[in-house]
Fold this protein.
Amino acid sequence: MFLIIMGVAGSGKTTIGQRTADQFGLPYYEGDAFHPAENIEKMSQGVPLTDSDRAGWLDILSTLIAEKLEAGESGVLACSALKASYRDQLQMDPDRVHFIYLKGDYDLIHSRLAARSDHYMPPDLLRSQFDDLEEPSEVYAVDIDRPLDAIFEDVFSYVRSLGLEARRSRR
């Protein structure tokens, strides 16, 4: 099974994705790490990515998912998956690929982006992400305007409902 944690930049994909992977003993894949250098340079310069820019990146991610599923492996992928066509490309098996949409409004997420200094994407690019976002109605959505522990509990409950068991904590 593959879980894709999706949403605009600053919605918490990395934080939620890593903790979900840890909770369920799954490998974690950071979608941003698969962007070609040209994409990262564009975003660093404040230039929004186009569908053409994202095409190769989405090919890499869909290949990753397909290869892992073919090998009988599971994982958690943090990926913006802003448009329905992007999600369609990543959704190769509805029984084994599940999206979790981290949903928040522009002001909340902009304030989060403005507060972080460890990412190449400037807060000014957030508007372009919201402009590109085609909000999914067919995936599990989590409101991120709540305490982090409440968000985690919603995500973990959903993942458990898919049949995954949390790994036992070591004492």
